[in-house]
Fold:
Amino acid sequence: MSRVAKRRRRSQERTGWIYITIAALGFLAIGVAAVTFTLRERKTDKMSGCPTDHYDSVTAVLVDMTDALDPTQAAALRNAMLKIRDATPKYGRLEIYTLAPVTASTLAPIFAACSPGSGRDVDSSLYGNPELADRVWKTRFGDNVAEVVKGLENLAPQANSPILEGVKSVSVTAFGNPLARNSKIKKFILISDLIQNAPRLSMYRGMPDFDAFRQTQYFQETRPALRGAEVELVPIERETASNIQDTRWRSFWIRYFQSLNDTVERWVRIEDY
Structure:
């Protein structure tokens, strides 16, 4: 074999080893990425899809359907609930409650599950499939929330609206859960006409002065423990209650939640949510 042929052969061998090394490094990188992705996937409960160590966030929504909604308000409620659903982050827990008397038992959520994450949560196409993630989100979370929201319209009106009692009940169930206590984000959303109507306090009999109300035993008994949750108040305004839903009414509820050391992040009409 000539010297030229030998040099050519050695050059080809070096080139071959370079390609093999590059390929090996590429496979190694993919393997590391896959392992990293697997390690980052947390153990979750099969029924709820929630992490078994703790919830990353908790959003509790209390919907007051004790009085019927007009068609526009019903459509606005659907829109608001779906926005809340879509804003729930991966591994974030969403709980939906409807207002009812709590004399016999606490309020139980009509929906409680965690978002599995959607395509927007997939970090890289190397080890993730955004389209598959979207399908999983839709099947396991999105469609289920939509079905529950649709059922809200079929709830029968009730004689009383024990809002204060309902808020306390949700605070215990949603935010007192050991898996929720260390959540970085806690949010409480109250969708209601915000007209308390219960035997011990009915705003239909007159708007109470908050400072006086704060000194009562009833305030202490119904005081919730929202554990620093951000509060969103979403009032449903009623034409028949314009004499109640005024500036004093708004001030009462904002001061009420502020007295609990919770921040009222938003006050927004259901139609504007």
Observations:
- The CA atoms of residues 98 and 227 lie 21 Å apart.
- Strands lie at 57-63, 92-98, 111-114, 185-192, 197-198, 201-202, 230-235, 264-267.
